[in-house]
Structures are given as structure tokens and as C-alpha cells.
Design a protein that fits this description.
Layout lengths: L1 H20 L6 H24 L20 H37 L5 H23 L8 H7 L4 H7 L6 E4 L26 H23 L4 H9 L2 H5 L2 E5 L7 E2 L7 E4 L1 E5 L2 H7 L8 E5 L18 E8 L2 E8 L3 E8 L5 E5 L2 E3 L2 E3 L3 E6 L2 E9 L2 H35 L1
Parallel strand pairs: 1-2, 5-6
Antiparallel strand pairs: 2-3, 4-9, 7-8, 8-14, 9-13, 10-11, 10-14, 12-13
Helix pairs in contact: 2-3, 3-4, 7-8
């Protein structure tokens, strides 16, 4: 962020400096003096770095300084290359400073017009920025859509999972599960990476998912039977709550099918109220998520019933999926508690039962839960943040105002033309 600020402020200062040079309120002698000071100072610093590159530092990062003595040839090569890069840029900077200063000096001596001087300085800026920008972003960094499609070709495991059209999640053990985003190209993944993380999900990774995946990997490495693998998965509460139906253990073979995944939504028989979030997180390892729901005491007001005994024929399922709209169908003989395999996020997500606003609460530390009335119902979760609605209204009002202003200016000009005629 500091570098971004410098990248904005230094060019801004340069523009303000040029503005003063073109200002007629200052004498030519003062301008020439200021130009000499600026040119000799900046150009002198550039030449100093060219002559004595050691002024820039050691040319090694803290990690590189710890490279063993036996690899001294490597550190010497790094230092030599970096000194050469600094000297190359220093002499280049000195040339650009000199050329700019000469062009501005000729302008102040009235041997160049202002427009000519500006064109020269603009060309020098372009000569400066173009090759530097190409060091970091050039044609090699861009790919055609066709090339991207070739890069992401489904593996045998991906193809098998894609045959299943139901909404489910996938865990990929062949990559760094929680630091790699490639799995999400084809599937809804329990992993991936983002710099801004939901804290509760991050805590579930550290206090549940990681341990469960390590246990599964340990069992798989022993080459045990399918029954033993299934036993480990049946105890993996976090994986099952997240509806992790498939686990990729190799891209070249069929994925592991987790028969214990609880689905997109399920009905529980009872709720267990705990004192706080810490106890709720700790209890995730020992409770039965298919039969019970853990609820923090602070949500007890939204929990009118604690027991919801099952009745034959009670069902709930996901009928429509969009990232911002989830539709479920339920059919129960009595009032039941349903848990949804979606992250509890009240800042924008609203719930409706048959079109009427409904209250939902947090269960199992980070999932959504709701009391479902008896009978057949349609439950909808819709992402409708107030900030987005207000922003749209402001944008619409601003656009209309701009259109009206443009229309007013146009009409005014037409009236003036007609009067003149």
C-alpha cells in the first residue's frame, strides 16, 4: 500500500511542478534556478547509485542471508545481478532526467514552445514507463479463452464427479486443499483461497476439517478396506455437515464417495443448547449432526422447540440453486428443525417461507437452521443486502440526473441556435 501511495503522490508532485514552470506569475530566473536544483539533485542521486550501488543495501533478503557458506557462489551471483540491474536503471534514469531538464530549459529560454516541450516530456514519460511496465505485464501474461480451456481440462476424477448433477461439495486432497482454487473451476469446493476469510470457517478448518482430513489421509496410506474408510468418514462431522460428497485422492482415478454426507438440508430430531461459541466448536467433534443441532444460547430466542421427533415421510430438499438464491421444498407432519448446509451470514441473506419473511439462526457453529412449520412449504434464502439496494438507488438517481442535465444543456443550445437564426 505504501508503494501505491508513492506511485500516486510522486507523479502528482511532478505535475504540480510542471504547472509552476508554465505559470506566468513566476519569473524565468526563478524557474531556471528551480529546474537546475531539481535536475542536479535527482540526476546526482541516480549517478551516485550507478557509481556506488552498495548505497542501496546488501542486495539480499533476510532469508537469503541465511544461505550456507558452501553456497556463497549463489549469493555472489545474486548480488552481482542485482547490482547490474540497479546500475542499468540508474544510468537510464539519469538520461531521462537530463533529457527532460534540457527540454524544459529550452522552453524557459523561449527556444521551444510550451506545447513542444510538453510533447517531449510526454514522450520521455512513455519511454520510461513502457519498458518498465513490460517487465511485469506483457503479452506472455495473457492467454486466449481457447488456451485457458485447454489449461483446465477435467481429469478422470473431475469427469466422474461431473456426471452427478446434484448440488454437492468436493474435497481435493491432490492439491493444498485450503490454499488452491483450481478445484472450484469444475466443482463446489470446501477449500480454495481468499485473502479475506470468514473467521468461523477459518476456525472450523483449524479445529475440525484439518484433523478429519489428516485422519482420512492416514487411513488411506495404510491401504485399508472400504468399510474402514467409511468408518472414518462417518466420524468426520465437519466434512459431512458441509455436504462433502466426493473426495479426490488422485486425478487419474475415480474419487472417493462419501456416503455420510448429510446433503444440502436435513431435519434433526433435537437441538442441544450450549453456553457459548467456544463450547459449540468443541462439541462439533462429539455430537451427531444428522440427528442433533448445536445452538449457541444467544440464539435460543429463535428456537421455540428443542425436540422435533421424526415422522415417516418428512422430507426437505434443495429444488433450485443460484449463488444468491436457494429454494428448498419441505413436507413434514409436525413442526421440525431443519439445518441447511450453507454458511450463516445474516448481513444480507434473508429467509422466506411461502413468500413470508422467516427467522433463521446459527447452528453447528456456522450453518443455518430454521423451524419449519408442518405441512408442505417453499423455503427461500435470498441475498438482499441493504447496502446493495441503496447503492443501486443512488446510482439510478445519479444517472437520471445526469441524463436530465445533458438533455437540458442540449435543449438550451438548440434554443440559442434558433434565436440566432
Amino acid at each position: 500500500m505504501t508503494l501505491v501511495m508513492a506511485g500516486v503522490c510522486i507523479p502528482l508532485l511532478a505535475a504540480l511542478g510542471l504547472k509552476e514552470l508554465f505559470n506566468n506569475n513566476t519569473s524565468a530566473q526563478v524557474k531556471i534556478k528551480a529546474l537546475k536544483i531539481a535536475a542536479f539533485t535527482t540526476g546526482g542521486i541516480a549517478l551516485l547509485f550507478f557509481l556506488i550501488p552498495a548505497l542501496a543495501g546488501s542486495f539480499l533478503s533476510s532469508g537469503e542471508k541465511e544461505i550456507p557458506e558452501s553456497y556463497r557462489w549463489l549469493t555472489n551471483a545474486l548480488i552481482s545481478d542485482r547490482k547490474m540491474m540497479l546500475r542499468s536503471d540508474a544510468i537510464r534514469s539519469a538520461f531521462l532526467i537530463s533529457a527532460s531538464a534540457i527540454a524544459l530549459w529550452f522552453m524557459l529560454k523561449e527556444k521551444l514552445k510550451i506545447n513542444q516541450a510538453l510533447l517531449i516530456v510526454g514522450a520521455l514519460v512513455l519511454i520510461d514507463m513502457w519498458p518498465v511496465a513490460n517487465r511485469f505485464l506483457n503479452s506472455d501474461n495473457f492467454s486466449t479463452p481457447k488456451a485457458i480451456k485447454k489449461t483446465f481440462m477435467p481429469s478422470i476424477a473431475d469427469s466422474k464427479i461431473l456426471e452427478d448433477k446434484s448440488e454437492k461439495r468436493v474435497c481435493n486432497l491432490t492439491v493444498s486443499t485450503f490454499n488452491d482454487g483450481t478445484t472450484s473451476y469444475f466443482h463446489h469446493s470446501i477449500g480454495g483461497y481468499h485473502g479475506a476469510k470468514l473467521m468461523r470457517y477459518d476456525e472450523l478448518i483449524g479445529n475440525g476439517l484439518t484433523q478429519e482430513l489428516n485422519s482420512l489421509i492416514s487411513v488411506l496410506q495404510k491401504g485399508v478396506t472400504e468399510e474402514e474408510i467409511n468408518k472414518v468418514l462417518s466420524r468426520s462431522n465437519a466434512l459431512n455437515m458441509l455436504n462433502t460428497k466426493y473426495i479426490i485422492i488422485s486425478p487419474d482415478q475415480y474419487p472417493l464417495l462419501n456416503k455420510n454426507a448429510l446433503g444440502n438440508a436435513w431435519l434433526v430430531k433435537k437441538t442441544l443448547v450450549v453456553e457459548n461459541a467456544d463450547k459449540e466448536l468443541a462439541a462439533l467433534r462429539t455430537f451427531n449432526p444428522g440427528e442433533e443441532a448445536l445452538v449457541d444460547r444467544k440464539f435460543s430466542d429463535a428456537l421455540p422447540i428443542c425436540d422435533s421427533p421424526a415422522t415417516s415421510g418428512d422430507t426437505i430438499y434443495l429444488s433450485e440453486y443460484k449463488p444468491n438464491r436457494l429454494v428448498y421444498k419441505s413436507k413434514t407432519a409436525t413442526d421440525r428443525i431443519a439445518v441447511f448446509s450453507e454458511i450463516y451470514y445474516p448481513a444480507g441473506w434473508n429467509a422466506y417461507i411461502d413468500g413470508n419473511p422467516a427467522q433463521y439462526f446459527c447452528a453447528d457453529y456456522l450453518l443455518r437452521a430454521m423451524q419449519i412449520p408442518s405441512g408442505e412449504h417453499t423455503i427461500i434464502y435470498s441475498f438482499e443486502p441493504d447496502s446493495y439496494k441503496k447503492g443501486n438507488r443512488v446510482a439510478l438517481a445519479s444517472s437520471l440526473l445526469l441524463i436530465l442535465l445533458l438533455a437540458g444543456v442540449t435543449v438550451n443550445q438548440i434554443i440559442k441556435i434558433r434565436k440566432n437564426v
